[in-house]
Design a protein that fits this description.
The complex is a heterodimer of chains A (192) and B (322).
Chain A: H1 2-8, E1 15-20, H2 23-39, E2 44-48, E3 79-87, H3 91-101, E4 108-116, E5 128-132, E6 139-144, H4 146-149, E7 153-158, H5 168-174, E8 176-177, H6 183-191
Parallel strand pairs in A: 1-2, 1-3, 3-4, 4-5
Antiparallel strand pairs in A: 6-7, 7-8
Chain B: H1 17-33, E1 48-53, H2 59-70, E2 74-79, H3 91-100, E3 105-110, H4 115-120, E4 126-132, H5 138-152, E5 159-163, H6 170-181, E6 185-189, E7 205-207, H7 210-216, E8 219-222, H8 238-245, H9 249-253, E9 260-262, H10 275-278, H11 285-304, H12 308-311
Parallel strand pairs in B: 1-2, 1-3, 3-4, 5-6, 5-8, 6-7, 8-9
Helix pairs in contact in B: 1-5, 1-11, 2-11, 5-6, 5-11
Classes of the chains: A alpha/beta (192), B alpha/beta (322).
């Protein structure tokens, strides 16, 4: 994924990786590390919390927790890549595009996701995808990252299952692993 | 409406430490929005908020209005003078008429203690207390907590002394409740004529000398002498008050540790606080003002609540995934 991002943008000049809270931020950090190892220079990184831009705030309750947003410096004319763990309906990406527009006018905005599970409700597609899976509506993908969850893995669980990060043991026993190496290595192998 | 705070925010006294902690934590990401070039997020788009101010206010009214506008709410300001209130309309009638125009929230300041609760029990809209008489001023208490937490990192065990006109101060009450719930130690200091008779029931230490309060405290919250509420002779003169209870540089320099200085404003410079303290290196008075906007955004966000019954019809977006 890291290589694809660099290739797509002709290098790392003016490149800004913006991770979506929460797991997207850690994935953006990892991709930035890989880019630094290969190209010698890490791209700028940012974090975006899209909660306040959600289109369903009137209907979700209680209020979701808002995480920090941190966009480094000026993004006018930059080439921004939004990084997230799972792409599903596309509504999060829509919110992220709106929020980025409040920070400036990038020359280009791209999208990189670890898992694309289909089921889009908006005309949004990813430029760089770690792994595509087709899932039913009653299933859910949870991406776990070492920094937050103590392990790197991608699991498919029933939609009604408790979040895998909270009940890791319970989730793990019932969960079916995606038949590829988990998390980080998915990204690493693809780019290698 | 399901809000983690309930329908209204009337006072800090009935809130749990968890609820206060939630408001403080929620305010953190809102600080950043006011630093952006475009200081606006679409969160409360379509919500209508009425700022109903029966008493004069600049800081609190402007702070609420900024918070509302930065969340994209539509706002209307009603001041008591020049409105139908001056023609004799009752508070409830005024509010019900506003509610008939389909509003979502009322932010109210009123000279009578308990006015916010009185209103909240009679209208369906969310009521936020922006100061009611000498009862409470919850958002001021919260922004003081946030400013103290910013500086000290943790409120537990923190020693805070409230200095001055505690008797007339809704800020003092909100501070005492809020600080105690968050685990801080609270003291008050002032002339006995400006302390409530039953001050001991608040569970606070009382200092009669401001020098002793400074020795004890890590932070002083200096209150304004509320001259407009003083109808009887509470103090001999402003000069004498300053001489005995004024927070001055000379007094602070005699203390061997740094003392953080807060003041809810507006200040009577040269009375309860000297200019070189108010503008000095340990003053966080303007940080309080900045934090006020973030706290009010957090309160509005949390109280606006979602309506899960609508979610039944909008099942297409499951939580967690996007």
């Amino acid at each position: 994924m890291a290589d694809e991002i660099v290739e797509l943008h002709d290098g790392t000049e003016d490149l800004v990786l913006v991770g979506i809270q929460r797991r997207g931020v850690q994935l953006a950090d990892r991709i930035a590390q890989l880019i630094a190892e290969r190209e010698g220079e890490p791209p700028r990184r940012g974090a975006l919390d899209i909660t306040l831009y959600r289109d369903d705030l009137q209907t979700v309750g209680p209020r979701p927790v808002v995480g920090p947003t941190d966009i480094p410096g000026d993004i006018d004319g930059a080439r921004v890549v939004i990084v997230d763990d799972v792409l599903y309906t596309g509504r999060t990406v829509r919110a992220a595009l709106d929020e980025l527009a409040d920070f400036g006018r990038p020359a280009r905005i791209g999208l990189a996701v670890l898992i694309d599970r289909g089921g889009r409700e908006l005309p949004i597609h990813a430029d760089v995808v770690g792994k595509r899976v087709e899932l039913r509506r009653d299933q859910r993908v949870d991406v776990l990252v070492n920094e937050l969850d103590g392990q790197d893995s991608v699991v498919v669980v029933p939609k009604t299952a408790p979040p895998s990060d909270a009940g890791r043991a319970a989730g793990g026993s019932r969960a079916k692993k995606v038949p590829t190496p988990p998390g980080r290595r998915t990204a690493g192998e693809k780019s290698a | 409406m399901t809000s983690p705070l309930g329908k209204d925010l009337l006072a800090l006294e009935p809130l749990t430490p968890e609820q206060i902690g939630l408001i403080l934590d929620t305010a953190e990401p809102f600080k950043e929005i006011s630093e952006r070039a475009i200081k606006k997020v679409p969160t409360l788009r379509g919500s209508t908020i009425v700022n109903l101010f029966f008493e004069p206010s600049t800081r609190t009214r402007v702070s609420f209005e900024f918070a509302e506008k930065r969340l994209s709410a539509d706002t209307v300001n009603v001041a008591a003078s020049g409105s139908s209130v001056s023609k004799g309309e009752t508070l409830v009638d005024t509010a019900r008429n506003l509610e008939a125009m389909r509003i979502d929230m009322v932010v109210m300041r009123h000279g009578a203690s308990g006015a916010a609760q009185f209103l909240a029990q009679r209208i369906e809209s969310t009521v936020i207390n922006a100061g009611d008489g000498t009862h409470e001023h919850p958002t001021q208490g919260l922004l003081d907590l946030l400013t103290l937490r910013d500086h000290f990192g943790d409120l537990r065990g923190l020693r805070v002394c409230i200095v001055g006109d505690v008797l007339h101060s809704r800020v003092a009450r909100s501070n005492i409740w809020g600080l105690q719930k968050m685990g801080a130690e609270v003291a008050v200091c002032g002339p006995r004529s400006l302390l409530p008779n039953a001050i001991a029931e608040f569970g606070v230490t009382v200092f009669d000398r401001v020098e002793a309060a400074m020795e004890w405290a890590q932070a002083l919250n200096v209150l304004r002498l509320q001259l407009e509420r003083m109808t009887a002779g509470y103090i001999p003169s402003l000069r004498e008050y300053n001489r005995v209870f004024g927070v001055t540089r000379e007094r602070l320099e005699r203390v061997d540790h740094d003392v953080l200085i807060l003041h809810p404003g507006p200040m009577n410079r040269g009375v309860e606080i000297d200019s070189d303290v108010a503008d000095g290196p340990h003053s966080v008075i303007l940080n309080q003002v900045t934090n006020g906007v973030a706290i009010r955004m957090a309160v509005l966000y949390l109280l606006a609540g979602g309506r899960p019954e609508l979610a039944e019809t909008a099942k297409s977006t499951p939580g967690g995934e996007r």
